[in-house]
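// run 5 | inverse folding | seed 20
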């Protein structure tokens, strides 16, 4: 496995509160890596720190061999790392097409832009059908597709997803997990914070389980699915 992203002793603080307490992890090229844990474990704070949305209080983050610890957030999408935030955060008063257009703000090559449109509309035909519709009028599942599509427009090497299945109907949850597997087959590396433990263990290559801002356990998804360690962390066993 070639590490695409490496975190060394990563720390995140909100005032006196230490949300992430020196975590070490790697996301390898072509993997799906899941970050699991109870609410408040530090999962979302970890992802937000990776893309510069919250400051890193200590430690180091490297992406594709380059130190990005203090890189401005707006420079990371062009560099190949994007985040689909929890809650989708689409621009409700803009059209679907205008939301997607924001994903190619840093690309100047017209052929690459055309290919990005084709790719996203191929993955999400409903977005093409509703391209002139205000994003705020879409269903929750369609807004999640739009948020993922917008992130894919800039051709990321690493796509980070924060709770992509949260609040969605079971049928749409199935589509989201199928999409993650499709993206991996297309060569996209994924880091996923997810509340659906069972489904995450089915699709992930490796798993980090956080508790209290630290990594409580880690390993291959297959190993953790049968060991009971994930359940122990959620139940407070270790």
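// decoded
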């Amino acid at each position: 496995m070639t590490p695409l992203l490496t975190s060394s002793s990563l720390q995140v603080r909100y005032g006196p509160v230490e949300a992430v307490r020196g975590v070490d992890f790697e996301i390898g090229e072509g993997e799906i890596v899941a970050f699991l844990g109870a609410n408040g474990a530090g999962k979302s704070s970890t992802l937000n720190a990776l893309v510069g949305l919250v400051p890193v209080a200590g430690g180091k983050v490297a992406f594709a061999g380059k130190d990005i610890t203090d890189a401005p957030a707006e420079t990371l999408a062009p560099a190949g790392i994007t985040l689909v935030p929890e809650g989708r955060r689409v621009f409700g008063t803009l059209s679907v097409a205008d939301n997607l257009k924001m994903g190619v703000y840093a690309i100047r090559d017209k052929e690459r832009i055309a290919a990005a449109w084709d790719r996203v509309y191929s993955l999400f035909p409903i977005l093409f059908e509703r391209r002139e519709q205000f994003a705020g009028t879409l269903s929750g599942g369609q807004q999640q597709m739009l948020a993922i599509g917008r992130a894919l427009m800039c051709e990321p090497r690493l796509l980070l997803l924060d709770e992509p299945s949260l609040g969605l109907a079971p049928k749409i949850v199935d589509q989201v997990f199928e999409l993650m597997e499709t993206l991996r087959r297309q060569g996209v590396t994924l880091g996923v914070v997810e509340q659906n433990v069972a489904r995450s263990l089915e699709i992930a290559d490796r798993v980090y389980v956080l508790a209290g801002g630290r990594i409580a356990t880690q390993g291959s998804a297959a190993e953790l699915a049968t060991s009971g360690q994930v359940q122990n962390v959620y139940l407070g066993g270790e």
